[in-house]
Amino acid sequence: MSRILATLVLALGFGLGSVRGSSLPDTCYLFAYFYHDLEKEGFRLAWSADGFEFEKLNQGRAWVTPVAGENKLMRDPAIFRGPDGLFHLVWTTGWTGKTIGYASSRDLINWSEQRTLPVMAHEAEAQNCWAPEVLWDAAKGTFLIYWSTTILGRYPDTEMSNRRAERNHRIYATTTVDFKVFTPTMLLYDAGYNVIDANIIPALDGTADWLMFVKDETFAPVTQKNIRMVRGRSPEGPWDPVSPALTGAYWAEGPTAIKVGDEYRVYFDKHMVDAIGLVTSKDLLNWTDQSAKVRMPEHARHGCILAVERGLMERLLEYSSGVDKQTPGATTP
Fold first, then answer.
1. Tens digits of per-residue pLDDT, 165-192?
2. Would you tell me the crossing angle of helices 310-320 and 3-11 to the nearest 10 degrees?
3. CA-CA distance, 91 to 79, in Å (whole number)?
């Protein structure tokens, strides 16, 4: 570890032993999140050497100030690294509206010009576009962008399942190869219940399957508000029946999943108690609540987990120490 990085790690409250001797581990973890009362400021990043104890980066300052969308907010930030190493950021631009926000970066410090993607502009009765995410479908050679939307009158059987007709969601998606031209928006997931906050990852269990983690948004007739899993043959389905709840007797939303070794970790927002929770499993059947092991920046909300290599983590730590004088959010070519 360089002298600068060693000093920085100590200054951030991490003893050298907490980063495995004198260097960071080969893989570190980032958690992108936002603050509910500061949604106009942009997303934050926290980092961890083990995926359990996270510390703020950049002294807790936002990395990108939102200018995209109808309401110029940045909620539910989701970052995905494409096969060429480029990071793609999408986010919720408002509580209502028909757009999502998009920007990209090579280093998570300097960001492209933001763009407004009108993914539901074709739907006159679309109420919102919440919690967008991105994945790469290698089999098709395309990116899949997906989110949750309510279209008034579209699913009458569950119209009042979350207290009002404007909150009756399903999961929609579009595909792209360049984030400039997009296929027509399609319905990605409807299993007959109110659903938001989809997060899709490859199963990595010896099959070609994909795993979608969602929030069952049902409030009535029987309140759910929990995280569930759906297995599919591809990122676009077909989808198996939904699993029982992975989370406990509390409200949970915003799942973000990653496989670490032989363990699946699903982080989520315990928004009613202002905390980030975690459930883990090695077989995708039996889940253990390990929320007590997680330490996140106070008041962090709905985020995404991302594994990064040591070199990038060192760069971000050095930037956050003030060694690098670049301005975060600056436009890149």
1. 999 999 999 999 999 999 999 999 999 9
2. 70
3. 9
Phi, psi dihedrals of residue 219, rounded to the nearest 5°: -105, -35
Cβ neighbors of 42 (< 8 A, separation 6 or more) are 34, 62, 63, 64, 65, 66, 74, 329
Using the structure block, give the residue that is written with the tokens 């499993």: 281
Residues with Cβ within 8 Å of 28's Cβ and at least 6 positions away in sequence, in order, are 47, 48, 49, 307, 308, 309, 310, 313
CB of 49 within 8 A of CB of 19? yes
Burial class (CB in 10 A: 0-12, 13-18, 19+), 11: exposed
Structure tokens at 9: 């790690």
- How confident is the model over 239-289, as pLDDT tens digits? 999 999 999 999 999 999 999 999 999 999 999 999 999 999 999 999 999
CB contact burial 169-208 (16+ within 10 A = b; e otherwise): bbbbbbbbeebeebeebeebbeeebbbbbbbbbbeeeeee
- Residue 143 is classified by DSSP as E
Q: Do 30 and 23 touch, CB atoms closer than 8 A? A: no
Is it the case that residue 16 has pLDDT exceeding 60? no
